[in-house]
């Protein structure tokens, strides 16, 4: 209802009441106008009712919500379930067109505005997080691994002779499979152990370039956010190398947007060398359901830039769900809300690490020194080592105990675990190297975590460790006797 429609109610209620109502309508309208005008995050988050009003008004611009629509095609935004329609705010056309995931749709003006606006807000979030020089981004309705694969497939057309992707090892299956599924051969560069940390072997990367030749390399695929004791790659050195050798550089920044250290690495790498694109997960950074990624670049958006080529590689129309979720979350957070989340995450990292150190000392273990990893931390499990096979079963048993006690996301890593992925065998899988000297458990202080959760995690690790060591300290004779007593009538 606008002001002119409100005036028609003058014979229904007193004019003074209408003036108050008109002021309320104008205040809502001004908030929406401000968002559409500036196309940036509001300083403070806005009320969810205003966000819902914006989405509702945008949905009215789509043809399927017209009162006089008569669809003659096979895809006309028809939705059988009213519950499903409400879940998506009646934005049923998706985003993009068959040839471009970012293209606007003639019969879905509202959905197109929503997607374009969300893209602008995501670029603002990236810049506010520390990547100030980022110039463009696109929202891809696939998680990080599939978005990396789409990026590699786009590079294929630009480097048709390339067969290989140089990849400093990180033991995470989806980023590895993204290269295999795109049809390329990973050249795995093992990390170097420096103190407790696993760091990038830049000389090893240079050796691979020399061995196969720069023209045969599609790109160097680096990583920022990762599980300790691995730490972010040496992005600046690699970016310089990529610039010198004219090799594309793709960065997996999966959950690095929440870390000022990771965003600083990206900013510096782009300043001194070459970074073609960096990918971040929507759910891991912005706490929305799984299913989307933000692909960003330091190049301005043009008809011929790299992100535009990636958008045109996407086959078919795309789901609008990730963009809707991101738009709602970004508007509800605002700049101050987002920065507050980042501040709390950093404080929780310090707190969790100090509390974990107390548990480690109690059990004769240690929290390893991994100062270059700003999100994840490691506690050794060395007191569980017996024979090699005993070590593996004991460490994995601790992992099972933590899982059954509702500690999700903690990873326990024994020494010497083996894993085969697409005919590539990894020794020491999970530890990012062939022979890390300790078994360990790793936990992360991620965005959205509370100090109360930190306390519960530490308490349950402490209790699980104590219970396991108590059971292991019993002799086989004690366990047999205890079992006999239980079986006795």
Explained architecture:
The chain is α/β, with parallel strands linked by helices and 489 residues long. Helices cover 48% and strands 13% of the residues. The protein has 16 helices and 14 strands. The chain has helices spanning 3-7, 15-38, 48-59, 82-87, 109-128, 144-158, 173-181, 202-212, 235-245, 260-272, 282-286, 306-313, 321-362, 388-404, 451-473, 476-487; strands spanning 136-140, 164-168, 185-189, 192-194, 197-199, 217-223, 249-252, 277-281, 293-297, 376-380, 411-413, 418-421, 424-427, 440-444. It has a seven-stranded mixed β-sheet, with helices on both faces. Strand 2, helix 7 and strand 3 form a beta-alpha-beta unit. The longest helix has 42 residues, at 321-362. The model has no long low-confidence stretch (mean pLDDT 92).
Keywords for this entry:
single chain, 489 residues, alpha/beta, 7-stranded mixed sheet, 3-stranded antiparallel sheet, 14 strands
Major beta-sheet overview: 7 strands, mixed
Span of the ends, CA to CA: 79 Å
Unreliable segments of 5+ consecutive residues? none
Estimate the helix proportion, in percent: 40-55%
Tell how many strands the DSSP assignment holds. Answer: 14
Shape: globular
H and E string: HHHHHEHEHEEEHEHEHEHEHHEHEEEEHH
> What is the rounded Rg?
27 Å
Q: Strands of the largest sheet, in order across it? A: 1-9-8-7-6-2-3
